[in-house]
Specification:
Helix content is about 95%, strand content about 0%. With about 100 residues, the chain is mainly alpha-helical.
């Protein structure tokens, strides 16, 4: 091999080495970016999971509130009926009082 050929081969080897180093650096950067994206996705997944739990908890609270409102309405109906009965009794009592005068 001549000196020119050796120099040419040495230049090629250097360029190949530079390309390999550049490709390795690019792969490292891409790997870091992928890790960052994976972390972001994991954070978003956790946030979505937490939101789902909050929504589920809120739905339980709505059901409990609906049940409480229904119970309150039923109790109010019963109280109104008792008030009507008490009003009738008081009216009769008042009538009897007036008649006894």
């Amino acid at each position: 091999m001549s000196v020119d050929q050796v120099d040419e081969l040495q230049g090629l080897v250097e360029r190949i080495g530079e390309v390999v180093l550049s490709a390795t650096e690019a792969m490292d950067i891409l790997s870091q970016r992928m890790d960052e994206l994976i972390q972001q996705v994991q954070v978003q997944e956790q946030q979505i999971e937490q939101q789902g739990k909050q929504i589920q908890q809120q739905s339980y609270q709505v059901v409990a509130l609906s049940s409480a409102v229904q119970t309150l309405a039923e109790n109010q109906d019963g109280s109104l009926q008792r008030l009507d009965q008490l009003t009738d009794v008081l009216q009769r009592f008042t009538s009897l009082m007036e008649q006894s005068k």
